[in-house]
Amino acid sequence: MKIQQNKIAILIGAGAVQNAWEPVLSCFRPINGAETDSDTANFLFAKSICALRLYSKSPKGMAQLNEERDMINAMKEIVCLSLKNAQQNGTLKPREEFESILNNFVLGHRDSLFGFVSANWDTVIDDAADRWVKEKYSNIDSSKVFHIHGSIEQHEHIYLPSETSMENYRSDAENDTLGYNHCATYKFLSEANTILLYGLSLDPLDAELCLLLNGTFTQSKMIREIIIINPDYQKVRKRVKALLFPRTDILIRCFDPKNLLKEL
Questions:
Q1: Which of 31, 35, 139 lies closest to 75, judged by CA?
Q2: pLDDT tens by residue, 98-133
Q3: Strand ranges (DSSP E) for the chain?
Q4: Cβ neighbours of residue 126 closer than 8 Å, sequence gap 6 or more
Q5: What is this structure's pTM?
Q6: What percent of the chain has pLDDT over 70?
Q7: What pLDDT was estimated at residue 4?
Q8: Which residues of 202-223 are buried (b: 16+ CB within 10 A; e: fewer)?
Q9: With the C-alpha atoms ordered 227, 230, 233, 235, is the resulting torsion angle positive or negative?
Q10: Domain spanning 7-18+93-255: which superfamily?
């Protein structure tokens, strides 16, 4: 009888990266003021997506739709360029506990299969994970990080807050591609025994990712535990419990990034 290998899915959010929002905010502050923060940026992103949805449903809204789409595409390009520059000059980098997390929760189960899913546009974690894998494993050539919200490598395809994989303002082919990506992510998560959430808040603006996790949590027969690594672990734990309902057989383990030895 074939023994099933343990599988670990590592989901990465902005909290895993130092100064994650600064390159994005630097694009908004000259226009919206120095007090612009991540909440303001998310608010403006979501407003633009709402405009696209409304204009795409109106026969008289084509001019506004094209104008809004052009503005958003230009904004995506500027934001991704800012993120690329921040990576190159070292403003963006993994938080200092990143390798310790991998050492504790992945390397401690050396025979486990593992993979990364990032909700970030930058590729900081991609590079760090690749270096770590090459250093720790002789039988793995490189680490691949799947970007569920797109990445700076293709600015036109990044996902903005509140977007979903099915939008009226996209072509059927574009929606099919994004839908396939989400299905592949769901399959990957459903096969995992452990799902580790690092720096991911499960924000309401990312309702589609929450829906995907809800399907995984409630339907997967493989999952045994969910590990939350977040300073605001109490809020994330509440959201995970809501996504798990009505299941109560999954272990939820919480840690502060600054103290990975103490389970909370």
A1: 31
A2: 999 999 999 877 777 889 999 999 999 999 999 998
A3: 7-12, 17-18, 93-94, 113-118, 145-147, 194-198, 225-229, 251-255
A4: 116, 118, 143, 145
A5: 0.93
A6: 98
A7: 64
A8: bbebbebbbebbbebbeebeeb
A9: negative
A10: NAD(P)-binding Rossmann-like Domain (3.40.50.720)
Among 52-66, 132-146, 232-246, the range of highest mean pLDDT: 232-246
Tokens 């003021």: give the residue: 33
Rg (CA), the chain: 19
* Secondary element (H or E) of residue 264: none
Under a CB-based contact definition with an 8 Å cutoff, are residues 17 and 125 in contact? yes
As a whole number of angstroms, the distance between CA 42 and CA 219 comes to: 31
Q: Which amino acid is at 34?
A: A
Domain edges within the chain? 7-18+93-255, 22-88
Tell me what pLDDT residue 1 has. 44
What is d(CA 118, CA 121) in angstroms, rounded to the nearest whole number?
Answer: 8
Residue that is written with structure tokens 């990957």 in the block:
188
